[in-house]
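Report of the visiting student (M.T.), summer placement. My assignment was to run the structure pipeline on a short list of targets and document each run. The first record concerns Holliday junction branch migration complex subunit RuvA.
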Amino acid sequence: MISSVRGRVQSVALDHVVVEVSGIGLAVRTTPATLATLRRGAEAELMTSLVIREDSWTLYGFVDADARGLFELVQTVSGVGPRLALAMLAVLDPDQLRHAVSEGDLTALTKVPGIGRKGAERLVVELRDKVGPTTSPGAPGTAAASETRTSVIEALVGLGFTAKQTEQAVDAVLADPDGPADTAGVLRRSLAILGRKS
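After the run finished, the structure tokens were exported:
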């Protein structure tokens, strides 16, 4: 199993990063928040989980072993595969996910695309005693919104947009009361706005 990769970032896309390791470019799927921390040409280290299927070998990357552990844990629940597990960590950070599961917060869990009420209930029942303690309540607030704004702006600038363009687009998304609040959703909506302008 490939448990981590370290090397120079060759490219950063919307859903993955390519890291050069000993002359080989490894595509690693990860969350928008993690992608926002990576820069082309810079050194990067990611904790990874290798998922092997009949037709593919896919690497999933995380900033630390804690996030990787949760990614692997939630896949022990029936109906949860690697893509859905990654979506959970794109919408909820590890502490928020732990809190939602341990407290039975179905509203938070169903914010993840692909998880309905029954799926959320199954997660709570099967993982409540396995997720471990949280270090914070995990409730979204002003600090979380500020962190989301910063992460999305950095990600968009990394994709080649100007700081002014990205700030205007991200602020427009965050100002919409019916708009997304999670990093992945804000990133997608901001990209749509920037695509119309270009």
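The chain has a mean pLDDT of 86. The chain has three domains: 4-62, 65-127, 142-197. I thank the supervising group for their guidance throughout the placement.
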